[in-house]
Amino acid sequence: MDCSDDLLSHIEVETSTLRIGAHEYHIRSLRDRQQFWDPDSLSAQAGISSASWPFFGVVWPAGRALAEEMSQFPIDGKRILEVGCGLGLCSLVLQQRGANITASDYHPLAEEFLRYNTDLNGLLPIHFQNAPWAGPNPELGRFDLIVGSDLLYERDHPALLADLLACHANPSAQVILTDPGRTYCGQFSTKMAAQGYTRTEQWRHFTGSDMPLSRGRIMSFTRDEL
After folding, report:
1. What is the C-alpha separation between 61 and 68, in angstroms, rounded?
2. pTM of the model
3. Nearest of 39, 22, 176 to residue 109 by alpha carbon
4. For residue 99, what are the contacts with CB-CB under 8 A and spacing of at least 6?
5. Which domains does the chain have, with CATH numbers?
6. Among positive and negative, which fits the CA dihedral 103, 106, 196, 204?
7. 3-57: pLDDT as tens digits
C-alpha cells in the first residue's frame, strides 16, 4: 500500500538504502524531525505530542542495531513481536528471513509506512497490530521473542513497557532491546527482574549515530518457564 497522496502533500519524505547483514533494504522515512501532520488529532488522542510525533519516522541508530542483531539471531519456531516498530526496519529483516513476525506501534502512521516499506522491498505483508502500552491489547496474543529499540526515553516508559511485556510474553520468553544509553534502563531492569527475567548486555558502536564514537547496549532479558 503506497503512502497516500494526501499524506505526502503535507509531510516530506525520503528513501534511503541500508545494508543489514547480507541484504540491502530500501526505507521510506520522514525527511527530518521537523515533520508533523495530525489533521484528525489521532496522534494527540494517542498521547503523542507534536515534539515526539516524528520519532516513529526516523531510522535511529538503536533501530539499525536491532535490525543487525536480528539479521543473525536464531528465529526457528519462535513467534516474534516488535514493539514500537516505527518504520519497520527490524520487522523487514525478520520477514526477509521467514520469521513469524508481528509488528506493533501506536503511532497512527506506523502501519502505512510499514506497508509501504514492505512493498518497496518486495516482501510479503507483515502482520501489524496497533498496540498502545497504556491499555489492553487482547488481540495481540503472546510471544516467544519480543524485540524493540530505544523504547525507554520517557519517565513512565519502564513501567508501561514492563506491563505490556507481562501481558504478551510467554512463560518462557526472551526480550531483546537496543538502547543508546538512556537513564531509565535500570528501572526497567528492576521491573523485569520482578517478573523472573535475568539480564545480560553487550556494549557496541551504533552505526548511523550523529556521534562518530557513539556506543549503545543490547540488553537481553531471558525467562525460563517454571
Report:
1. 11
2. 0.95
3. 39
4. 75, 78, 80
5. 5-223 (3.40.50.150)
6. positive
7. 676 788 899 999 999 999 999 999 999 999 999 999 999 999 999 999 999 999 9
